[in-house]
Specification:
Blueprint: H1 12-15, H2 20-23, H3 25-48, H4 50-70, H5 74-86, H6 90-101, H7 104-135, H8 139-159, H9 173-196, H10 201-223, H11 231-234, H12 237-265, H13 281-309, H14 311-332, H15 336-362, H16 370-398, E1 400-401, E2 409-410, H17 412-434, H18 439-464
Antiparallel strand pairs: 1-2
Helix pairs in contact: 3-4, 3-5, 3-9, 3-16, 4-5, 4-6, 4-8, 6-7, 6-16, 7-13, 7-15, 9-10, 9-16, 12-13, 12-14, 12-15, 12-16, 12-17, 13-14, 13-15, 14-15, 14-17, 15-16, 16-17
Length: about 475
Amino acid sequence: MQTLVVPLIGELPELLDTTRSNATWVVTATLLAAAVATPISGRLGDLYGKRRIMLGCSALLVAGSLVCALSTSVVPMIAGRALQGAAMGLIPLGISAMRDLLPPEKFGTSIALMSASMGIGGALGLPVAAAVAEYSNWRTLFWGSTVLAVAIAALIYFLIPATPVTARGTFDPVGAIGLGIGLICLLLGVSKGADWGWTSGTTLGLLVGAVVVLLAWGWFELRTRDPLVDLRVTARPVVLLTNLSSVVIGFAMYAQSLIVPQLLQLLQLPTETGYGLGQDMLEMGLWMAPGGFMMMLISPVGARISHARGPKTTLALGAAVVAVGYLAAVGLMGSTWGLLVAVCITSGGVGFAYGAMPALIMGSVPISETGSATSFNTLMRSIGTSVSAAVVGVVLAHMTTTDFGGVPLPSESGFQVGLLIGAAVAAVAALLALLIPTRAAREAEERIEHAIDEVDAEAAVAVRR
């Protein structure tokens, strides 16, 4: 769903009879809806059963795909894409359901494989969508996604057992609204800042509003009995550092998706610049696709490393491999085969990291919080991708050249700086991963927290007496 409309972006204004600015909302709506809906889906899954909410997400995916397939203007298309984005909670729910349904010996490998499936889905989606857009009607993309969504719903219904409901309490609508408003302000400001101007009143107002709303939301969540997100659990060192690593890994992963396709497609006559590779959309997608397969192939290796050395080691190793992949891209950006090697290295590192992060989260939260905690971790990764799009966009927009026909193009140094930023950010993620407490330290910390809770409980009894 994320890469489905990429080949259509340039044609959407004509297809939907709208402006280029309005057409960008077809992408932005999916991002915003996914960010808002994912933590809500996670909490609902803990309260009412993950299988039930997964089926609800599938229904949203079917409805969104149908609306897009039938759209003749930009407004229903944006609405359909928002429904598709709201279905993204399906992924962390599926990962967290594994803790309830699978035997321990299959748990690590299964998490790693499902996490890697996101990579192969995106990698395959791009060339498939490009081929359909080039050789068939664009609506075929959405009719195809409708059929796939129906198949997914049927498979979940018939093959996934009901998951036990372990959480107690009620849903927190105030927390959901507050988090939604804060995230929309934040992501709108970040994703649209380049178009509106980073110093414009709209952008600054959104970013300041996001800070104010999210601080108020955090204050409320700490004082409500049944919070949407238990911030005390997310403040535990393992969970906190894993979530921070997720933001940074999301940034590092997405930077490649922004830079490498442009390098592959830049100019049909690469000899004019020395760094463009002149591939069309379909060819670009095919060069990028092996990265998704690499994630799938490498994920069982990451699971074995996590089993032997712990997911902390796998996360740190994955981030380090991502950094190596970016450095390789700097040296190999002059050829398609060189970029293919760099993409595979980076994707292998992402495969390690994506499999390790849910394992770290679910190993550090109560079973009643797995859906909410895993979904919040997915949200952190989405925030990282949004910030990555803004930063890389600014770098490529400001480091341009007009030496070739007077048309401003990202310069070779701009691409190199973007790749080096990706390497630096991945290195930061590796350092954050190394700071995650070991199991022994975590168990000692949990014993201290338990002792404090017992003291608090005894003090409360004494006060009542």
